[in-house]
Amino acid sequence: MNANQQFAVSCHILTILAAHSEGSLTSETIADSVDTNPVVIRRVMSHLRKHGLVASRPGTGGGWHLLRSPVELSLGEVYRAISHEGLLSIHQHPNPLCPIGGNIQGALDPIFEAAQNALEKSLEGFNVADILENTRRQNARE
Predict the structure, then answer these.
(1) DSSP output for 8-73
(2) Residue 55: predicted pLDDT
(3) What angle do CA 93, 118, 44 make, to 5 degrees?
């Protein structure tokens, strides 16, 4: 799964956990909402757990839960938890003998870095509670 999908799935997971703040949800329940396999959910959850966003309880009545309030979970923090590389990346093997190919990485690096910084700054302005509110608003329209 690419980073964009992992981010969207992470937002989905955190939002469903926020909606069920009174208890924990199993990977199977979350997977049903995301329409994927529970293994995919557990893989994404491992990144979220490593960054202190979620935890799990084993056994009967166990499952996943948020470690903080949805208002305290910025989407920038979620993005950084699952993103292992920048949004934009340079192709692997430009021709180093070409005047463009030999210099394209250096020319694109500052542009890509500025775009990445703008994305992360923008995501800091939103949180999981915003997504939950948007889903409730969408649901009310139907």
Answers:
(1) HHHHHHHHHHHHTTTS-B-HHHHHHHHTS-HHHHHHHHHHHHHTTSEEEE-STT-EEEESS-GGG-
(2) 96
(3) 70
**For residue 141, what pLDDT is reported?**
85
- 3-89+127-141 has which fold? Arc Repressor Mutant, subunit A (1.10.10)
**Over 70: is that where the pLDDT of 132 sits?**
yes
The residue ranges of every structural domain in the chain are 3-89+127-141
Q: Which residue has the higher pLDDT, 135 or 2?
A: 135
Which residue has 């956990």 as its token pair?
17
Does this model's pTM top 0.90? My answer is no
SS (HEC) of 76-125 = HHHHHHHCCCCCCCCCCCCCCCCCCCCCHHHHHHHHHHHHHHHHHHHHHC
Three-state DSSP class for residue 134: helix
User: In the predicted model, is pLDDT for residue 86 greater than 80?
Assistant: no
Six-digit token string for 54: 């979620």
pLDDT at 26 over 70: yes
Q: What is the DSSP letter of 3?
A: H
